[in-house]
Amino acid sequence: MTFTQRYVALGDSFTEGVGDADPASPNGVRGWADRVAEQLILADPSWGFANLAIRGKKMRQILDHQVDAALALEPTLVTVYAGANDILRPRVDIDRLMGEYDDGVRRLRGSGADVVLFTGLDASASAVFGKTRGRTAIYNEWVREIADRRGATIVDYWRLREFQDWSYWDMDRMHMSTAGHTLMAARVLETLNASHRIDLPELAARPALKRLEQVRADAQWAREYLTPWVGRRLRRVSSGDLLSAKYPVLVHPPWAPIDT
C-alpha cells in the first residue's frame, strides 16, 4: 500500500511503549506513539506508521541506527526522544551529547519532515531519579534551543504536571503505565493540533500508605526493579539488546480499525 503521509517514531523505551503491556503487539507493548498513529489513521487512512524505538538505547545508538532508517522511509512526521538513558549514567557530557542530537534533528528536518521533540520529565517526585533533575534541566534548555534553530515542535514533558501523579506510572516507577501512555498520546496529538477520540482514563484513588507500609513497598521495588536495572548497567547490557524495532517498515498496524 502507498502511504502519502508517513509517521516514524524514534527513541528508547519511552517511545517503544514499555509500561503499556499488550501481548498482541510486537515486543509485548503498545505505547503512546502507537496510539497517536491509530488516531492519525482513523482520521486519514493515507497515514503509514513505523516505530523504530527500542528500550535501553542511548543517544548515539538512536542517532546511528534509527535516523538513517527513518530517512529511508521518507517521513512526513517524526517524533524523537533521545538522551534519557545517557542522563541516568554516572557520567555524561551533555553539551557534546546535544551537539550530536542537533545534527540528527538537522538531518531529519532537512528531509522536509515535521519533527517533534520532547523535553525531559521533571523527576523531582522520585527519590532515586530526582537526583538527575539538574542534568535534565540543562538537557531541556538544549532541546528548546535545537527546536528553535531547526524549526521543530516541542512536547513539553517537564511542564506536564499530570505526570507527577504516580497513578500514571508503571510498577517499576521508571516507565509510564497504560494510563500514562494514553495521556501522553492525547498531549502529543494536541501539540500537533490533530483531532482525536482518546478517552482519558479515570484514575483510581491510591490509599496513603503508613510509614512502615511505604518502607516495605520501597524495599520490594528496590529488589524487583532497581537492583536489576543497576545490575544491567554495571554489566553494560540492556533490556533491548535482543529486541528489534516493533514496526521497522511503514504499515497500518493490526490494531488500526480500518480496512486496509
Automatic annotation (TrEMBL):
Q: Which GO terms describe its molecular function?
A: hydrolase activity
Give the range the annotation lists for the signal sequence: none
Gene3D superfamilies, per database record: SGNH hydrolase (3.40.50.1110)
A Pfam short name: Lipase_GDSL_2
Report the residue ranges that make up the SGNH hydrolase-type esterase domain in this protein.
9-182
Q: Which UniProt keywords apply?
A: Hydrolase
What stretch or stretches form a coiled coil here? none
- SUPFAM superfamilies hit by this protein: SGNH hydrolase (SSF52266)
Question: InterPro entries, from UniProt?
Answer: GDSL_Rv0518-like, SGNH_hydro, SGNH_hydro_sf
Protein name (database record): SGNH/GDSL hydrolase family protein
Organism, by scientific name, is Arthrobacter echini
Q: What lineage, starting at the top, does this entry show?
A: Bacteria, Bacillati, Actinomycetota, Actinomycetes, Micrococcales
